[in-house]
Amino acid sequence: MTLPWKLEGQRTYFSKALIEAGRKDPRVVVLGADTTESLKSMPFGKEFPGRLINLGIAEQNMMAVAAGMAVSGLVPFSCTYSVFATAHVYNVIRQAIAYPKANVKIFSSHAGLTTGPDGATHQMNEDLALMRGLPNMTVLVPVDGPQTARCVEAAVEWEGPVYCRFSRSNFPTLTQPTDPFEIGRATVMRDGSDVTLIGCGIMVSRCLLAADELANAGVSARVINMSTIKPIDAAVVVKAARETGAIVTAEEHSIVHGLGSAVAGVTAEHYPVPVKTVGVQDVFGESGESEELLEKYGLTSANVAKAAHLALKLK
Amino acid sequence: MRGHVLRMTHAAQSGHPGGSLSCTDLIASLYFHELRVDPARPDWPDRDRFVLSKGHACPAQYAALAERGYFPREELLTFRKLGSRLQGHPELGLTPGVEACAGAEGQGLSVGIGMALAARLLGKAWRTFVIVGDGENDVGETWEAAMAGPNLKLDSLVAIIDRNGIQQEGRTEDIMPLEPLADKWRAFGWHVLEIDGHSVRAILEALSVARSVRGRPTCIVAKTVKGKGVSFMENVIKYHGAATTDDELRLGLSELGEGAP
CA–CA separation, B156 vs B93, rounded Å? Predict the structure, then answer.
């Protein structure tokens, strides 16, 4: 598929942002689990010898070490692939980080289907579900490279545990480095009045494409980038429900307990309107190229547009 | 302190007296002889850190904290009660003097490594002590930490294994044999000392040796008795997680020379 945007690696932005953060704040340290090259945290270690620690393939230890560092006054970035940064170590995060509100920043790459050929073991489609279930946890999904860098900056400023996930694959660059970014604040990417498409990560670009398709069919769609999954920007969801009367969510994640569930929770509680969810249908992925997988598992602009039409019928 | 452990778990009618009594001498030696801490300033940045990785033994830690003046002794009997600062397992941020949440086994040594690393990176002189239950040697993360400590040359870190030989459902050697435990820690690169965990003199000597070890952390394997000090509890598996009856409390306290409850 030819996209109208430049494709860039989130990890490249992450790498530079870490160094920037390390320069600004001597409390920033980085931990890796035999993943410092892959996460591109190695340059941080070259810039700040001693402040990048590779703990080997021992993620449970890494998370609790990060907790010990955080409660001692440092700001550790604990970084590995999404599956190992969440599911593999969930109870360590729960007890050592979330429960005592340890100031640990868990930044993970290789989230979602766009992990590609590595297959289902590495395609983490349940991380948002797990992490938003934890009290005290903040959950971020940057839409692109520049916003990944903004997440690093914001996480350093934020007091408390943060989980942030991004992709192995290059994503369409939709934002400028100078665009406003705030944890807990969604961004309206395009205004519209008939239906609202709320996406996170790569699916925001698919929502924008779907909005074009819908416009051709005479439907005016609002598009929102929900880069914070928790705390969810309830105000922007309620406003969308009130003003457009129908919502579609789209995420590169299971439809169980992710963005769609968070949005539906807000509307059910505050302003019930039809909500359709586009995401991985409670199944595991498989090996393949990113684009092929997005297509096969229904994470397409066409599917978002189709869901919008279904939501409109329920209005 | 042992009397406190009995009274607290009796008042709560739950908790873990056996494993609290096995590490009471270790905890007392740390709080009254070794740790550079200031009960008036639990957040003093340069304080030594103590993590009770076997969080279920927190009655012993709470007893030490109360005796050391972190909070009033009367508060001990609120243990495990609704609204208490003394949770069933330690909660960082709630109880003055508690440095880590613990309860799920096997995480405390990793937290201690983080604290020791932080001391190095921040240029601080604090030292870090972690009491690890012998049952926690079943946990994979304990061995992840056991590998990391020597690799990071954390000589400001001391792990003390409360080797009481009993875990929740039986003897450690019946459930998942740990021996030769000291050799295992030696093989992982620790400076290992084996001592009688109820001899305060031996404990203090070992802690003194640990202070002089350079380039690697110290692991003290402290041979202890579960339920130590109360005859009917000693080496009895049941008292891992069972409180005393009224009669047992009276008997236990009299054995400890503590008089009436």
Answer: 24
pLDDT digits (tens, 9 = 90+) for A230-280: 999 999 999 999 999 999 999 999 999 999 999 999 999 999 999 999 999
Which SS3 state, helix, strand or coil, does residue B219 take? strand
- Whether the predicted pLDDT of A1 surpasses 70: no
Residue at a domain's end among A172, A206, A223: A172
A134 shares a domain with A25: yes
Q: Looking at A8, A20, A47, A59, which residue is catalytic? A: A59
Both A196 and A157 in one domain: the answer is: no
* Catalytic site includes residue A59: yes
Peptide bond into A231 cis (omega under 30): yes
Question: Which domain does A279 fall in, by range?
Answer: 187-314
Q: How far apart are CA A175 and CA A169, in angstroms?
A: 17
Residue with tokens 């996170």: A200
- For chain B, list the domains and their CATH numbers: 2-255 (3.40.50.970)
ipTM computed for the complex: 0.96
Q: Give yes or no: residues A19 and A135 share one domain.
A: yes
Single pTM value for the model: 0.97
Q: Are residues A18 and A166 in the same domain?
A: yes
Chain A residue with minimal CA distance to B142? Answer: A61
Residue B131, classed as helix, strand or coil, is strand
Residue A35 sits in a domain whose CATH number is 3.40.50.970
Q: For residue A30, what are the β-bridge partners?
A: A52, A77
A93 and A102 Cβ atoms separated by less than 8 Å = no
Total tally of structural domains belonging to chain A:
2
Three-state secondary-structure class, residue B1: coil
pLDDT attached to residue B259: 76
Per-state percent for chain A, helix, strand, coil, to nearest 5: 40, 20, 35
Q: A147 in a domain, yes or no?
A: yes
A contacts of B100 (beta carbons < 8 Å)? 67-68, 71, 96, 100
Nearest CB neighbour to A73, from listed B102, B104, B122:
B122
SS3 readout for A129-187 = HHHHCCCCCEEECCCCHHHHHHHHHHHHHCCCCEEEECCCCEEECCCCCCCCCCCCCCE
Asked whether residue A89 is domain-assigned, the answer is yes
Q: Helix/strand/coil (H, E, C) string of A186-241?
A: CEEEECCCCEEEEECCCHHHHHHHHHHHHHHCCCCEEEEECCEEECCCHHHHHHHH
